[in-house]
Amino acid sequence: MEYESVIGLEIHVELDTESKMFCSCSTRFGEAPNTQTCPVCLGMPGSLPVPNKKAVEYVIRTGLAIFCDISLFSQFHRKNYFYPDMPKNYQISQYDIPLCIDGHVDLEMEDYATTIGVTRIHLEEDTGKLLHIGGAGRIAGADYSQVDFNRAGVPLMEIVSEPDIRTPEEAKTYAQKIRAILVSLGVSDCNMDQGSMRVDANISLRPVGREEFGVKAELKNLNSFRSLQRGLAYEIERQTKALQSGEAIVQETRHWDETKNTTSTLRTKEYAHDYRYFPDPDLVPMEFDPEWIEGLRAELPELPDERRERYMKDFGLPAHDANLLVETKATGDFFEAAVALYSGDAKIMSNWILGDLTYYLNAENVEIDAGEVKPAHLVEMVDLIDDGTISGKIAKEIISEMFKTGKMPKAIVEEKGMTQISGQDEIAKIVDDVIAQNPDAVQEFHDGKERAFGFLVGQAMRLTKGRGNPQLINKLLKEKL
Ligand code: ADP
Ligand code: ZN
Ligand code: MG
């Protein structure tokens, strides 16, 4: 039997506010443990929460950006459970009246487009962090645990998708797009390494053609877009095998192990009624002035979809390039800064950014705005190609060097004597040598084999150590042959 996967993502995002959700403690990351706490976020009896308006605004902004209905009346609930990283033994969250409902995100896949529904976006507070000592950092086998409440009470937004996602690739594209939107909105830095964006993936399988959903598993500990994709791929394999051998899938939460490349049971699923949700009596419901919301809508910045359209319209880029350039806000910003400095065709800039530069960034796992190569580096390099100083082949070496040292291309060219050989006489002599040394290829060329010509050009480039002007080599070789 053939199965189709059904995937829904729950994305938690720490909002970029100065202070926490219900107190005035700082949200700064990386401070000494338990230095950013107060009676409210430590859950002391008698302390009272006061909502952070900025956080509410950020959630509504997000809802507007992904076409949600905004609730004019909303409320906070208590979600009751015990865990040592949560001092109150309940989390202030939202239940039946979240701030935003019924949105959607359009995805441009390589050769089709699709739309993913967003069920809801709600606002809650983050928990503290447990540090397990011994036992390789996992709770099982640890000698003891330490708790840091700096994160407790940081505003957390949860974006819940409909089960509209069908492949791991779509899941990754959806999560990346959500990140690009949130970064454009300025509501979060969405740093997955630091945990300010956390993706949980729900996945079930069903026989192709069947409407009804199967039993799902929820995957946790997906710490990068890559692990999201790999975790889902693994889970599809596991569930397919189970279903094919007639085993039932258990509804449970599973832990993705990045090094072992597998998922394992973390806990069987809890249900909403286990949490005994009730409205938080310390917090009055929120009512919004529609005008305030329309004001937020009017202030929305340019979003990835609009940016993509603009790149196609104003710069004449193909959809493929435009899609990749808007994948992160930083990439689009880099591209625009480069185009502003460059007088040639924007497509050339796009090629270098999406080609060689991305290659090095990915290989070293560096973000484009954190790398040594700035737009000015790339533009100076392309200018050197345009004016004939260097060949495209040399440029590839220069990118690698700029990436390592941050030196400007002109300085690298001078230092390493990489200028292009464009002297008629010098190239002519090299072409003569190539013809003399390769009689077989010359014969093949005369017999009509086009490939032999390419081979001879390659030999000439080799003799010039990649510095020969390719156009000139082509021209002289053709003449002499
Ligand atoms: P739960 O009650 O387990 O929290 P929800 O209905 O709240 O489940 O959904 C949580 C997430 O799981 C949502 O993103 C939703 O789209 C997704 N989801 C729900 N049912 C399924 C299913 N059968 N297969 C895959 N994903 C699902
Ligand atoms: Zn506090
Ligand atoms: Mg749920």
TrEMBL record:
SMART domains: GatB_Yqey
EC number: 6.3.5.-
PROSITE patterns documented for this protein: GATB (PS01234)
Pfam families: GatB_N, GatB_Yqey
Gene3D superfamilies per UniProt: 1.10.10.410, GatB domain, N-terminal subdomain
BP GO terms, sorted: glutaminyl-tRNAGln biosynthesis via transamidation; translation
GO MF, one example: transferase activity
Stored InterPro entries: Asn/Gln-tRNA_amidoTrfase_suB/E, Asn/Gln-tRNA_Trfase_suB/E_cat, Asn/Gln_amidotransferase, Asn/Gln_tRNA_amidoTrase-B-like, GatB, GatB_C_1, GatB_Yqey_C_2, Gln-tRNA_amidoTrfase_suB_CS
Chain ranges of the Asn/Gln amidotransferase domain: 333-481
Highest taxon of the lineage: Bacteria
Record's keyword terms, sorted: ATP-binding, Ligase, Nucleotide-binding, Protein biosynthesis, Transferase
Catalytic function, reaction form: L-glutamyl-tRNA(Gln) + L-glutamine + ATP + H2O = L-glutaminyl-tRNA(Gln) + L-glutamate + ADP + phosphate + H(+); L-aspartyl-tRNA(Asn) + L-glutamine + ATP + H2O = L-asparaginyl-tRNA(Asn) + L-glutamate + ADP + phosphate + 2 H(+)
Quaternary state and interactors: Heterotrimer of A, B and C subunits.
Record function comment: Allows the formation of correctly charged Asn-tRNA(Asn) or Gln-tRNA(Gln) through the transamidation of misacylated Asp-tRNA(Asn) or Glu-tRNA(Gln) in organisms which lack either or both of asparaginyl-tRNA or glutaminyl-tRNA synthetases. The reaction takes place in the presence of glutamine and ATP through an activated phospho-Asp-tRNA(Asn) or phospho-Glu-tRNA(Gln).
Family label: Belongs to the GatB/GatE family. GatB subfamily.
Name by which UniProt lists this protein: Aspartyl/glutamyl-tRNA(Asn/Gln) amidotransferase subunit B
Organism: Candidatus Aquicultor primus
Lineage: Bacteria, Bacillati, Actinomycetota, Candidatus Aquicultoria, Candidatus Aquicultorales
